[in-house]
Design goal:
Elements: E1 2-9, H1 23-28, E2 32-39, H2 45-55, E3 63-69
Antiparallel strand pairs: 1-2, 1-3
Length: about 70
């Protein structure tokens, strides 16, 4: 088994800087989400992402990052 960290970030532009918000700004806007899931050693990245979007439809158009953690 491996642990995968899923990070989802929505692209929201800061009106005062005209740049994307950083993670702290996204967290304040409830537009940043991270969770950990346990997967088999031979995991399907696309299936993990599809399941995440199914469980969290708010983030379907977000940038999703999967990080495999050493366990």
């Amino acid at each position: 088994m491996k642990t995968v960290k899923i990070i989802a970030r929505q692209d929201i532009i800061n009106a005062s800087t005209h740049k994307l918000f950083d993670d702290d700004g996204l967290k304040a806007l409830d537009s940043y989400f991270e969770c950990f899931v346990n997967v088999e050693d031979e995991h399907d990245v696309v299936a993990i992402e599809k399941q995440f979007i199914k469980d969290n439809p708010k983030f379907k158009d977000s940038n999703i990052e999967l990080v495999v953690l050493d366990t």
